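debug: dumping io for the single-chain case to check the tokenizer round-trip. Nothing else runs in this session.
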Amino acid sequence: MIEQAGADALELNIYFVPTDDEMTAADVERRYIDLVADVRQSVSLPLAVKIGQNFTSLPNFAQHLVAAGADGLVLFNRYVEADIDLDTLQMKPDLVLSNRHEARVPIRWIAILRDQLKVSLAATSGVHRMQGALKLLLAGADVTMMASILLMNGPGVLSAILEELEAWLEEREYDSVEQLKGSMSRGNCADPSALERANYMKALTNYTMEHPLPPGS
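debug: decoded output
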């Protein structure tokens, strides 16, 4: 029906939380892959698939989604987590808007996936400022999405972000966004370990040097 209404593309937003202790990681992935394949058979529109980040081997899973028919991936779905209402003793959904530091997760994974996938990659979660959008483009995103910052500050913030991005590009003599896109993907990064767990000790050492404990503590 969406295709017949004239849509140019379709985003398949998959929100599934496995609760069955007999369902394996492979079962969960197969559920996603089968759904993408079914939708691909039903529509001819370009198909983007929005997923969460909690998969055992995201690069392998992403390849299977593409093979099933995804033309693009949206990274990542940000789930609404349940909370407990202490007055009613009931579970309730609690919407918490993102913060700008959450963009680091899609930065990492888009940088890792960019050189392995030949499909469009869109980034979502934590894109609040020009700097966050720019970092995601450098990592290899084709698209950056915003929601929380628009809810907080209104759509007028988009003009300011675009102006700041244009100024940054002109100052560094970039001809276009396309020129910089993916230039800091894992394959182009001088230190790929910065995207991996091995860099944790370096980050911790840098933090302690920049934030020394007060004398006598």
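debug: round-trip ok. Residues 10-189 form a domain with the TIM Barrel fold (CATH 3.20.20.70).
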